[in-house]
Write a structure and sequence with these properties.
By secondary structure, the protein is of the alpha/beta class. It contains eleven helices and 28 strands. Bound molecules: flavin-adenine dinucleotide and nicotinamide-adenine-dinucleotide.
Length: 409
């Protein structure tokens, strides 16, 4: 049965990450002022480029470059922005509970992103850092600098203070060690520390780094990073994290690696709020229908890392990526306009995967783009093109000029 509104329908969008902000900026282009009440809720007054957070954490890019004021990219005549934290969704009452109030909706878009997945490993939550948002990235940067400062001021040096462990050699772990490989020599110079004393150890449970990625590109990345002083422990699982470092296991061998910094980058799950609100989820991700609707709730749409879709080509979930979150936002904005205007059929969401580029610092990378393998400066160049394109889609050419990456050499 068609829904007939006697007032402007209310669209509430939760989260200003890639999925939420792309839904918002495209919706504001499509709908007139009098067609809908659009409210965007986010815990910060800025959107951040999650895909750049490893650079902020390593200290190779200032965090202000990664954040974009929401009021600079939304049309305030069409979108009402509420800075608040979502604590619960009550779909039966079409209500969202915030820390400082509540909102009702006719259509809800959930784009609350990801959380670190610690798989219940002892001590990780308490003792390891994770790249979760701007604040956590800043904390990692400050912590590493503090450890270097402390070490340089020590009479009897404890070398483990300047050992940094990265758990997981997926794309996040590798992009982070790539940045650290460039940052460490700068820190050594700043704090008068011998580079040979610093260890950056990346621990990966699978038999290779970047499991599942093209083996030739993986070999390139590994030897490039090893030449820059990164140590890899492959086929080695982190079993525990303590205040002193980590306990790892390889085959039957258990070993302790002492470290002043442990960063867990070994997996993500959907935002816990979604699951806690009663939506059926797998590792926090809700299996949505082809129109991005949550099962059993025709007016609740989920985008980005809190959603899950199966790739029919391999029967496995699509990986949670910004690429897909942004495409979902564009598709959903069109479909919401159709629903508001009751003007036709909804369009199914089909990811259009253009490839993957993994940076190894700002000056090198590996990738497969439109089916073609690239490495070195060409891949690093492509990575910046991708980063700038995301800015263009979010905020237009002015945003690219303001925040874009143009250090191509
Ligand atoms: P997010 O971008 O995580 O945004 C969620 C938003 O919701 C944030 O603004 C947050 O502040 C807000 N929020 C969260 N909780 C609340 C709450 N309770 N109340 C109010 N607001 C809330 N993918 C790629 O495709 N390419 C890459 O190169 C790439 N690089 C990456 C590098 C790193 C270091 C990381 C960590 C991930 C990378 N990814 C990349 C994955 C990509 O960043 C995610 O898939 C993407 O950010 C998911 O977008 P999202 O819209 O679901 O949520
Ligand atoms: P991931 O799940 O892709 O990788 C996590 C890695 O940690 C895996 O290799 C896994 O084997 C390893 N691991 C798990 N438990 C471990 C343990 N106990 N000890 C040691 N290693 C362990 O997670 P991610 O790298 O955070 O990526 C999350 C998502 O973000 C993915 O979809 C990824 O594609 C995307 N991403 C993309 C890019 C890019 O396109 N350049 C960059 C970063 C992230």
């Amino acid at each position: 049965m068609d829904v007939i509104f006697l007032r402007k329908p209310k669209i509430v969008i939760l989260g200003a990450g890639y999925g939420g902000i792309m839904t918002t900026v495209n919706l504001q282009k499509k709908l007139g002022v009098n067609e809908a009440d659009i409210t965007l809720v986010n815990n910060n007054d800025y959107h951040y480029q999650t895909t750049w957070l490893h650079e902020n954490a390593a200290g190779t890019l200032h965090h202000d470059r990664s954040r974009i004021q929401i009021n600079d990219i939304i049309d305030r005549s069409k979108v009402n922005f509420v800075q608040d934290t979502v604590s619960k969704i009550i779909p039966e009452e079409r209500k969202v509970i915030l820390d400082n109030g509540e909102l009702t909706y006719d259509y809800l878009v959930v784009g609350l992103g990801y959380e670190s997945e610690t798989f219940g490993i002892k001590g990780l939550k308490e003792n390891a850092f994770a790249i979760a948002n701007i604040s956590s990235a800043r904390q990692i940067k400050e912590h590493i600098e503090y450890q270097f400062a402390k070490y340089s001021n020590m009479r009897e040096k404890k070398d483990e203070l300047i050992t940094i462990i990265i758990g997981g050699a997926g794309f996040t772990g590798i992009e982070l060690v790539g940045e650290l490989a460039n940052r460490i020599p700068e820190l050594c110079q700043e704090f008068d520390i011998d580079r040979d004393k610093v260890r950056v150890v990346c621990v990966e449970a699978a038999p290779m780094i970047l499991p599942g990625f093209d083996p030739e590109l993986v070999d390139y990345a590994r030897s490039y990073l090893e030449r820059k002083g990164i140590e890899f422990r492959i086929g080695t699982a982190i079993k525990e994290c303590t205040t002193e470092g980590i306990i790892v296991a390889k085959d039957d061998q258990v070993e302790e690696i002492k470290a002043g910094t442990v960063i867990w980058a070994a997996g993500v799950r959907g935002n816990g709020i979604v699951e806690e609100s009663g939506f059926e989820a797998m590792r926090g991700r809700v299996k949505v229908d082809p129109y991005l609707r949550a099962p059993g709730h025709d007016n609740v749409f989920i985008v980005g890392d809190s959603s899950l879709m199966i790739n029919p080509e391999n029967d496995r979930p699509y990986p949670p990526t910004a690429q897909i979150a942004m495409q979902q936002g564009i598709n959903l904005a069109s479909n919401l306009a159709v629903l508001i205007r009751d003007s036709g059929n909804l369009e199914e969401f089909k990811p259009d995967l253009k490839g993957t580029v993994c940076s190894l610092g700002h000056d090198d990378a590996i990738g497969v783009v439109f089916g073609k393998k690239i490495v070195g400066w060409q891949a690093a160049f492509m990575k910046k093109v991708i980063d700038n394109r995301a800015l263009l889609l979010i905020g237009g050419p002015m945003l690219v000029l303001k925040k874009g990456k143009f250090n191509f050499l």
